[in-house]
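User: Hey, my collaborator sent me this sequence without any context and asked if I could get a structure. I don't really work with proteins. Can you help?
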Amino acid sequence: MASVELIGAAHAEHTFEGIATRLLDMSPALRAEERVLEVQEQGVFAQHAGRFVDTGALKNSLTMPNAPGAVRKVSATSLQFGTSIKYARFQTEHIGPETEAGGMARPLPVAILKITEETRRVVAKDLMNHAVHGSGSELSLIEEML
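Assistant: No problem. I've predicted the 3D structure and written it out in structure-token form, which is a compact way to encode the shape of the chain:
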């Protein structure tokens, strides 16, 4: 009967145990992604050159982690990012059609973060890098886009 010699089994086992451990607690990577999302929001506000900023409360709540109204909650497997500023729901890309009274019909508030395709790619890459390699964020890529 022929035998098979397995080379690198201990290294593979160690690697897969590390991946499994990191997948059970993604919070270090998710905390880093808070900053990626804040930087992206800075870019959104910069594109509008102050057009939608009156008091700065909404902008601050989306770009500064400890600002009043900032929502940042991280668990082992999830990240909540947003704002509790009540009028934020009216800052939408697609306002509704004109109503019979001449106003604008507003869509219902949604709990979906609108992020750019580039930010989506960076976040996905960051989370994968954390799970597989335990490495950090690609924040510099987002900052370069601004």
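In plain terms: The chain has one domain: 26-93+104-145. You can pass these tokens on to your collaborator as they are.
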